[in-house]
Amino acid sequence: MTTVSMTVNGKTVSADVEDRTLLVSFLRETLGLTGTHVGCDTSQCGACVVHIDGRAVKSCTTLAVQAAGTAVTTIEGLSSGGELHPVQAAFRDNHGLQCGFCTPGMIMTSVDIINRHGAHLDEATVRHELEGNICRCTGYHNIVKSVLDAAGRMTTSAAAE
Amino acid sequence: MGVEGIGQSVVRKEDKRFITGKGKYTDDIKLQGLTQAHFVRSPHAHARIKSIDTSAAKAMPGVVAVLTGSELVGDKIGNLICGWMVHSKDGSPMKMGAFPAMANETVRWVGQAVAVVIAETKNLARDAAEAVVVDYEELQAVVDVREAVKPGAPQLHPEAANNTIYQWSIGDQSATDAAIAGAAHVVTMDIMNNRLVPNPMEPRSAVAQYDSADDHLTLWTTSQNPHVARLLLSAFYNIAPENKLRVIAPDVGGGFGAKIYVYPEEIVCLWAARKIDRPVKWTADRSEAFLTDAHGRDHVSKAELAFDADHKIIGLRVHTYANFGAYMSLFSSSVPTYLYATLLSGQYNIPNIYCEVDGVYTNTVPVDAYRGAGRPEAAFLIERLMETAARQFGMSPADLRRKNFITQFPHQTPVIMTYDTGDFNASLDAAMKAIDYAGFPARKAASAAKGKLRGIGISCYIEACGIAPSKAVGSLGAGVGLWESAEVRVNPVGTVEVLTGSHSHGQGHETTFAQLISTRLGVGIDTVQIIHGDTDKVQFGMGTYGSRSGAVGMSAILKAVEKVEAKARKIAAHLMEAAEGDIVIEGGEVKVAGTDKKMPWALVALAAYTGHNLPDGMEPGLKEGAFYDPTNFTFPAGSYIAEVEIDPDTGKTTVCNFTAADDFGNLMNPMIVEGQVHGGIAQGIGQALLEGTVYTGDGQLLTASYMDYAMPRADDLPSFDIHHTCTPCPGNPLGIKGCGEAGAIGSPPAIINAITDALGHNHIEMPATPDRVWHAIHSRMAAE
Ligand code: FES
Ligand code: FES
After folding, report:
1. From atom 3 of ligand 1, which residue's Cα is the shortest distance away?
2. Which of A71, B67, B616, B657 is disulfide-compatible with B643, CB 3.0–4.6 A?
3. Span B142-194+295-393: which CATH code?
């Protein structure tokens, strides 16, 4: 057992965990943050994506102890003040989700994609960047649309600031 | 807020919880004292279990129990059943081998459960499962249907000689033989339909809780049809009587057919929860999903399509081997028979059809309905034949299809179905226009200039949905009726709850069903709550599959809301002293036509509940239920056109353009309908280009993870161009045909027709991987 401490969605958390505990289990089982999902066992599907210190990471392939001392953001911590994050809003407005299971990971990955590419995103880049996230429901058509829409919203709002 | 009625692309109500991480899926459920189950599974495709030693596992830390198949059988837990009786052409019933929830004598596929470890945590259960020692005597295995039926092949079940479950047939054999014998042209093809793994992104999961005081069980499970699950668990698996068992299917992360069935793991969790008197959870990991979720397709067919001298079809003869896997899954028998061969007429006038289907056991994962279920296999077969025929005749594939299209409705095919309505020319026209079919030669030349091969392929599919009229399916052997039920409850303040037997696992029912209420009662969709997926709340339901929730589920809601309206009109007429026939419900108000008399909807609802001033003899309250049983299947149909470009150096196929023109009848929410089509096309392109399920000869599944099984990713696919034509369905009051499966049915033949067009080589197996395409190109070059 090891004691791990980190910041999750702005709150400091600390718990004793088995060394082999994955970050995703720590989030889902220890902290009860079940918005982060597990869709595979080979680090392929991206249902588990969270941000560690602002970068998208697959929490199924990260040990909880590796995240000690970092700031983790999960889907539950993405919006603030009761307002949806622009990527969340774009997924809803463009029907970028059906069953919703891949959605938290898709949204967390998309935020990271937009952060890295800003306004320069095009369809081909979005499709390429989504390579590590699998969706079985949407055929990606509306996910791609959502990401491009969100990129537009985020860069416009950044320009306005 | 305004009325958000049917026909509008209303943004989904359910999305808020999913985009904020507040969805409630089965694995999210936490209970006091929860234990975790991990299954010990067979590493052999075929073996006798000589002994199981659980003593070391039982002694490990945190282990609560280790249970085996013989204890399960000892407790009289019933074997899994196939719920659709199909008879062979000689009249004998299908040969069903015993399917225990955990094997006690023989294992028949890699991944079959033999024991379960229940422990305080997942990791401890997994550790202890490693310590369960099973002594197997290995037996010969068989995975290919053509091998399995040969004399001397390993035999799976004593009930089924030559591993043959049934030899079924449909249609007029002698008339078809005669038509083919006298034909001017016969196109003959061997056609394989590749085995697929459904892969909803949420792995299956079950949580079972036992209340010993009431002797009552609750199961949370990833199900498309919780009421059917409860019925099976009670009536056949001996878990508990229905009044002592509640089944809840909370948010479910996709189904595609794989979550229709009750699986061994759910049975074992319930049985174990009672035995240890603690709640038990099991969640599949992805490899377990590959090894245990019912697979789809897996047909090997020989087909002959006969034409007269004028290129009119005169007969179709088909023989299909259908791979059932190691056991008969719940609806497995119906998929390659009544859901497949009854659609072999496609969109064409075919006077004579005869089809034989042999259902065959092999040492592989059981096979059952996967998105489309039988209909994709039929569409692939007929559309490959049509394209091939056009090539042999040197005719335009569109013209050959048009020449043979059914244009008069209703149309009785020789294989049971009566197509009610359609306009096949309209959808083909729409698709050809949208993809600029006429401009293809120029695009092909431009590709050729870059050293690339370009091809275009058409597919005109039809399917039977809205499953299904209970009487009809009963006469064909179904063990259940396929109606749907609904209840509409108006609260005293005028808000509405709809309880439906349909189940949403991505289809957006919370929105579309609310749109229907909004249209009828003129209330905002936010005042309407859709309740589903809980046997304690909803009286009964048949669930969601076969594109039935619009055509059947919504028709039941409409019937119930009509009864509510009738009562509300009576109350309003009484209160406003008007004739009942003059009352209209509109825009949240109840009005007397032709006058300015009106009252708010909410006050009519309130009057129903105060009961202070109701017509003489009327019961208080405003709540009505209905069962709706359709009178026919519905027949969505359409034309898909794919345009591909192939790099001859690598064999890689790129889908450049994909156009769909579907006739789904009336659309309730076009945004959601298009989303369904997108997802279906992606699965169809997956089947055609990427998804191959590979077994070794001794029954090891090589493609049991996302490292090995190629799921379609965003950069494997283009954006899709979706169009609609409309002939409203005459069979249900809303004119809906259903849209959930079309994409997966129509797209594989379009892709393969396009690839073979590009290659100038008519044969390629699915999935048309770069390797296969490269070899097709180079074997042809070598031959030339
Ligand atoms: S669960 Fe992490 S990549 Fe699939
Ligand atoms: S919305 Fe269901 S997997 Fe993406």
Report:
1. A43
2. B657
3. 3.30.365.10
Per the prediction, chain B carries an average pLDDT of 96
Backbone angles phi, psi at B521, to 5 degrees: -100, -5
Domain B438-455+637-784 fold: Aldehyde Oxidoreductase; domain 4 (3.30.365)
CATH 1.10.150.120 domain position(s) in chain A: 86-160
Check residue B545 and give its pLDDT: 85
- Give the C-alpha separation, B192 to B766, whole Å: 8
Residue length, chain A? 161
What average pLDDT does this structure show over B727-742? 92
Question: pLDDT for A16-31, tens place per residue?
Answer: 999 999 999 999 999 9
Could you say which of 3.40.50.150, 1.10.472.90, 3.30.365.10, 1.10.540.10 is the CATH number of the domain covering B2-20+483-628?
A: 3.30.365.10
Confidence grade of residue B1 (pLDDT, cut at 50, 70, 90)? very low
Choose the closest CB to A136 out of B200, B714, B720: B200
CA–CA min distance B504, chain A (Å):
8
Q: Taking 80 as the threshold, does the pLDDT of residue B228 lie above it?
A: yes
Residues of A in contact with B30 (CB under 8 A): 32
Which residue in the set A25, A42, A103 is minimally distant from B707, CB to CB? A42
Sign, CA dihedral A113-A118-A119-A121, equals negative
Q: Give the residue range(s) of CATH 3.90.1170.50 domains in chain B.
A: 31-139+202-253+259-292
Query: What's the CA angle centered on A24, arms A20 and A28, to 5 degrees?
Result: 115
Residues B554 and B624: their CA atoms lie apart, in Å, by 15
- pLDDT at B541 (0 to 100): 85
**Residue, of B732 and B308, whose pLDDT is higher:** B308
What's the gap in Å between B588 CA and the centre of ligand 2?
A: 35
Any chain B CB within 8 A of the CB of A123?
yes
Q: Please check whether residue B32 touches A, CB under 8 A.
A: no
Interface ipTM: 0.97
The answer to whether A118 faces chain B, any CB pair under 8 Å, is: no
**What is the atom index within ligand 1 of the atom nearest the CA of A49?**
2
Three-state SS sequence of B16-59: HHHHCCCCCEHHHCCCCCCEEEEEEECCCCCEEEEEEECHHHHC
Alpha helix positions (H), B394-488: 397-404, 424-434, 440-449, 470-475
- Residue B62: which of B115, B130, B123 has the closest Cα? B123
Contact: B706, A40; criterion CB under 8 Å? yes
CATH architecture entry for A2-77: Roll (3.10)
**Whole-model pTM?**
0.96
B5–A contact, CB cutoff 8 A: no
Architecture of domain A86-160: Orthogonal Bundle (1.10)
CB pairs under 8 A between A and B: 179
Over range B77-99, report the average pLDDT.
97
Q: How confident is the model over A71-86, as pLDDT tens digits?
A: 999 999 999 888 999 9
CATH for B31-139+202-253+259-292 is: 3.90.1170.50
Q: What residues contact residue B376 under an 8 Å CB cut-off, 6+ apart?
A: B193, B297, B684, B687, B741, B744, B745, B748
